[in-house]
Structure formats: C-alpha cells, structure tokens
Amino acid sequence: xxxxxxxxxxTSDPTGTKPLRADARRNRERILAAAEAxxxxxxxxxxxxxVAAHAGVAxxxxxKHFPTKQALLQAIMKDLLARLTQEVxxxxxxxxxxxxxxxxxTRMVEQAAQKRTVVGLLAETGxxxxxxxxxxxxxxxxxxxxxxxxxxxxxxxxxxxxEVIALLTGLCQGALHxxxxxxxxxxxxxxxxxxxxxxxxxxxxAGTYS
Amino acid sequence: xxxxxxxxxxTSDPTGTKPLRADARRNRERILAAAEAxxxxxxxxxxxxxVAAHAGVAxxxxxKHFPTKQALLQAIMKDLLARLTQEVxxxxxxxxxxxxxxxxxTRMVEQAAQKRTVVGLLAETGxxxxxxxxxxxxxxxxxxxxxxxxxxxxxxxxxxxxEVIALLTGLCQGALHxxxxxxxxxxxxxxxxxxxxxxxxxxxxAGTYS
Amino acid sequence: xxxxxxxxxxTSDPTGTKPLRADARRNRERILAAAEAxxxxxxxxxxxxxVAAHAGVAxxxxxKHFPTKQALLQAIMKDLLARLTQEVxxxxxxxxxxxxxxxxxTRMVEQAAQKRTVVGLLAETGxxxxxxxxxxxxxxxxxxxxxxxxxxxxxxxxxxxxEVIALLTGLCQGALHxxxxxxxxxxxxxxxxxxxxxxxxxxxxAGTYS
Amino acid sequence: xxxxxxxxxxTSDPTGTKPLRADARRNRERILAAAEAxxxxxxxxxxxxxVAAHAGVAxxxxxKHFPTKQALLQAIMKDLLARLTQEVxxxxxxxxxxxxxxxxxTRMVEQAAQKRTVVGLLAETGxxxxxxxxxxxxxxxxxxxxxxxxxxxxxxxxxxxxEVIALLTGLCQGALHxxxxxxxxxxxxxxxxxxxxxxxxxxxxAGTYS
DNA sequence: TATGAATGAGTATTCATTCAT
DNA sequence: TATGAATGAATACTCATTCAT
Lengths: 210, 210, 210, 210
Prior knowledge:
CATH architecture of the largest domain in chain A: Orthogonal Bundle
Structural class of chain A: mainly alpha
CATH class of the largest domain in chain A: Mainly Alpha
CATH superfamily of the largest domain in chain A: Tetracycline Repressor, domain 2
Strand content of chain A: under 5%
Mean pLDDT of chain A: 79
Largest interface: A-B, 44 and 43 residues
Order of helices and strands of chain A: HHHHHHHHHH
Number of helices of chain A: 10
Number of domains of chain A: 2
Oligomer: homotetramer
Number of strands of chain A: 0
Distance between the termini of chain A: 41 Å
CATH topology of the largest domain in chain A: Tetracycline Repressor, domain 2
Low-confidence stretches of chain A: 1-16, 121-127, 205-210
Helix content of chain A: 55-70%
C-alpha cells in the first residue's frame, strides 16, 4: 500500500475542525490516496465503490468522511492545489529567481503527463468544485514567481498572470490527454518559454531545440 | 425537424461502405448533427436518448446507425477532423502563406472556446477512439501549413510538427475548459506565436500585448 | 396473476396523452396493480424492486412508466380516488337518497379495514402527493351525497362537508391501523351516524347496538 | 445540554429492571426525550443518529440503552401510554364525572393535531410494538371514565369500551394526518359526542354547531 | 427499416447496528 | 460505561443496449 500519500500539511484540516481520532484520520488519508489513484487512472467517473475497495474500507466509510462524491473530488483538488502552492512557495525562495517560473511550469507539465491527474479531469466533468480559495492561493504563488522572473529579466514585463495560467492550464491538459513524451514536452515548453522571454534574452537556457 | 445538417463532404463515409437508402442516409446525418450538438452542450456523458430525441428519431434508430455510443462518438470525431482538414487545405492554398498556420491555430482555439466542442471531451473520456486515419489526414494538412510558414520565414525552421500539434491540443483544451475570453485567447496565443517566430521576425503582427 | 385490476376508466390517461402501445399499456396496468398490492401489504416504504418483481417486469420498466417512486404512489392514489369518486357518483343516483352517505362511509371503512389501503399510508410518509384535482372531485361527490341526505332528512342540516370528510378520514385510518373487525366497525359507525342524524331521526336504521 | 426531561413517573421502568447508575439513568431520559421530539417532528423514519445528536450523546450510547430502533420506539410508546394513563386517572377522580370521557378524548385529539405525535406514527410503520401491558393499563383507565360517564348519564349504556377506543384512535389519526384546525376538531368531536349521548341528553354542552 | 418498450447491471447515498478505542 | 468510526445491506434511479412490434 505505498500509494503517493498526501503530505500531512496538505490534508490538515482548516483550523477549527475538531481533530479526528487516530484511526479515522488514517482512514481519511487512505481514502484520499486511493481516490487520487483511482480517479487519476480512470477519470472522475470511476465509482466510489472502487475507491472504497482500493482504500480497503467499506463504502460507508468513504461517505462518512466525504458525504458526497463531489466532496471527495473537492478534497482531492484542494489537496493537490495545496501541494502545488507549497511547491510554488519553495521555488519562490530559491536562489535562481529567473528560472523559477519556468521550472514550476515544467514540473507541473511533467506531473500532468505522468499521471492522469485529477486537475484536468475535474474541469471536464462540468462539476463545479468550489475550490476558489485554494485556487486563489496558488494564483498568488504563481504571481510571485512571475514577478520575480520579470524582475530578473527572464520574462517580458508585458506578460500578465492570466496568460501564464492560461498557458499552464493548456499545457497541462495537453500533456495529460495527448500523452506527450519527455522530449516532446521539452520542445513544446521551450517554444512557449521562448515566447515569454524578452527579445534580448531569447535563445536562453530553456531554448535548445533538437 | 430539419436541423442544420453537416455538409455532405464532411460526413462522407470512408470509401467502401455500402451506400445507404436516401432516408437512411438522411437519418444518419440528422443523428450525427444532433449528437454533435448535444455532446457539445452537455459533454459526452449526455445520454443517447437525448441525442435520439434531439434528432427526432427513436433510440433504436440511433443504435441501428451507430451500434455503440462509442461508435457514435467516433463518427463525430471523424466528422470534425474531416472538417478541420478541409479548412486546413483551404488555408494552405490561400495567398498569405506566412500567416496560414497562425490563422488556423487561432480559429481552432476560438472554436474550442466557444462551444464545448467534442474534440476536447473525447480525449477525456479515456475512450480510445481509433480515428487514426482521420487524424493522419489532419496532421498532413497541418504539416503543409507549417512548411509553408517556415518557407515564408514566419516560423522557425527548427520547429517540428509534433510541437505544433502539442501546442494546438493544449491551447484548445485550455480554452475549452478554462473558458478564456477573446482577449485572453489573443494574448495567450500571441505569446505562443512569438515563441514560434524566428529571432529576426520577432514582435510580428500577432504580437501586440496590452 | 388475478390481482384487483384497476378499472379501465380509472387508469385512462388524461386526454392529450399519446396512447401507449398495447404491451406498454398492459405493463402499466400490471405495475399499478402490483404496486397497489405491495404497498397495501407493506406500506409505502416497500421497495420499488419488490413492486417490479411482483409485476414480473424489470426495475427499469417501472421507472420508465413512473419516473419516480412518488409518481407511482401518486398514480395509485389517483386511481383509487377515481374509483371512489365513481362509487360516490353511482350512489348519488341510487334510489335510497337518505342512506347514500351512510352507505358510502360504511363501504370506505370496510375497504380500509380489509386491505392496508394506500390512502392512509400516503399521508403518513409525509409525502405530498399533489393529487388535489382528484381529491376535489371526490369532495364534490361526497358533498352531493351529503346534500341529498340532508334533503332526505337523515343528516342534520348544520353538518358541513368538512366534518364529514374529517370523520371519514379518521374512521378509515382507525379501521386501517387498528384492524377493527366487522362487528366493531358496525358499532363504531353506528355511533357516528347517530351523531349525524337529526334529533327526530335518532335510533334510525343504522343504529342497532348490541 | 439540559433538555426538557420527561417527568420521572412517566419514564419509570417496568418493575424488575435492575436500577441504573445515576448518569446512565440521566442519559436514558435524555435519549427518550430526544427521540420523542425527533420522531414527533420527522416521523419514525428519522435516523437514530439524529436522535443521538439531539440528545447530545453518541450513537453507541443510544444503542446501549435501546438495543434496537424498535426498542426505542417501544419505549417512547410506553412512556406516552403511561402519561396518558396518568391523565386518565386524574380525570377519573375529578369532580365533573359526566364530562370526563369527553374531556379526555378532546385533549387527546388536540395533542394529536398539534404535534406529529408518535402515537399515530407507530401504528403506521407496521411494526408490532408489543406494548400490550401499557395499553391494557390505558384501556382500564378509559373504561373507568366510560363507566363514570355512563353512570352520570352522559353516555349511552349500550356503548362498549371497544367502540370508544376505536373512535379515539380514528379521531387521533385523522386529526394527526389531516391537520384539522381547532374549529374543525370541535365540530367533528361534537358530532361524535352527540352520537355517544343518550337520547334524553342530546344537544348537550358539547354539541354546539356553527 | 424504424420504433420505442423492456432489460438489468451499475451508481450514489442512507442507516441500523457492531465493535475497537 | 461512553464514544464514534466502520460496516455493508438496501434503495432509488440511470442508461447503454436488445428485441418484439
């Protein structure tokens, strides 16, 4: 049972929620991990039953923790966004300020390509997941990366956060669904990064074409 | 009950299929059109019943023409790809060779953003749609556009078809799911186009940022 | 399969509904009859599955005809009310005008006592069945009976329709739940009828006590 | 968390039960009170969880005291019957012997109409509640009232206890489900009371019609 | 060939009851 | 003894697919 377990800080309850009993908390984690795995593999239309089976609990337990399938999807989404935000924050305090944004985008695309992440799938189902808060946190993190990159002169000043997120979304979705291999990822990202750079910085580190 | 029927060439059967009676053919068209409309609006999880109702035929008729829901989705996909290929071919013989690729990408993204097109949704369902032939035709069309643009000097020589298609896919998916508005589309595409241009053509027509 | 089949006129569609195919209509009747039997025996919390099994059809067929359990209950209710209204109307044109109301009440109570009728059960579940129209028809029928009885001098002039219906409801519920035997029914009704008679008519035909 | 506890005599265990610890007894009372309130409001299909929550105890505690939902319903029923018996006994020693039965019936109907009492709901569930002993006590109390009324000359000699209880049951059920307003209650009861009176006492105090 | 009724496996969700903490 | 997490059977409802009319 060595599924990718969500980092503790990501799944920590919002303050104010009464702490769960040890076994309950353990099950919650297992369910979340199972759900992430199952939905990642089969898409969000996978049955809750399957999630329960994968987690090794009864179906009732899943619904005790997440009273709706929606709620379960939301929880995964929040978890994921929290981990991304965390990663963004780490990058933001790293040394190479100019490359931070490029690195982050690259990592996200890599992840998306690897596993059929939930991120993308969520949107598709038309389910409105109301994870606005978590999204906002991530936006802020990305904005910080963008600003730093612009100050470092590796991204044009006239680029807005919206475009960056649009590109990020599109690239992830593309990578996710079309199953780009590493090489294709690299070359595709290189093109986009080239488009983000100021004229005087073109042909930079990320821009090596075969 | 005369719904807007797809153009005949778009729905043409692959050669080798036995010709249908006139009324059967008419029904086939109506079902396809209905399916495209319904799936475009509600996603591929819309029920076949709804498609039948929208087409004004009984459910049995739908399954007579397309023995599986899968088959119906496939047919739509092929239809769509055929129309895109058609559009590509038209663009390829236009006068402005340098802008043809950019124009095509822009149009596709616009369409994807406008209607919840099937394109994107198909991939998501994880269904393997086996439309390889149709895709190949489109690939070839796009390749022609790419070559012409490169010859015209508006796209870098070191760009491959794979990256172009990867970008196209990602941008469409992004536009589709994230609901970009026209302005955001324009700015996002401008960045990508900038990345596609050779150094000496940078800051070209498509690259005006707010 | 000789369950009490609803009379044709009771189940006839409101005009304007497209006529069903013969087999569909037959199934509809069977489902209704089965539902009436099952709910009558086990109360409205009986499962729809059981109704389907009892009717010898698949569960989907039940839901095709009655898209909701509610709808099924409603249909039974309407059916029942229609039959009651019918009975009321017959009584209203009978010869013995003075006894018509008493006869009707007696019959209803008898029926309620016999089978765990749906009437009573419906109210209990807290389900709002929206059969107002059908109820109104029955009210009008009962009102006619009441008026005739009053004109015949067997019911006091100062009795209103509301009280009659209240008594009818209470007596049916009581008979239904408490399982009164025939003799107890008779004696209980005799008391109520006695209360309905004018002073000068007391000790009338219905009022023989042990 | 001091909810309105039922009076001690009402909840007294049948003799022979081993005495509970003080806190356990307190919990028992709270659960009973909560159950009565919850079931009164939502009907007997309300969940045991809700009862537990309302009582401020854990679900396990409820099942410790009442090993089955059935048992809980039974206990409420007994409690209720005990209170009614108590009320009957009080009335039986009151001064106005002739009106005692009428008063009792009136009160019961009033209560039934006011709150979605459990009384009525119990019968509906089809659950056999085995509260024969408690019922017997109540029967005896009512019989006493009946006898006194007959001796006082306000109720006919040929009326039996069974009919009185039948009427009582029916009227309560009717009032409960049909939601009679006070005025309708009054007029309906007046009719029944009139039916109970001997000829020479007709048009008595309770018999004023609009 | 078209129709549309019937099928029945599948899905989310609830809830009485059990049992480890 | 109290807690409350876990259980899992049950239930209403959906929908792709089949087949008699």
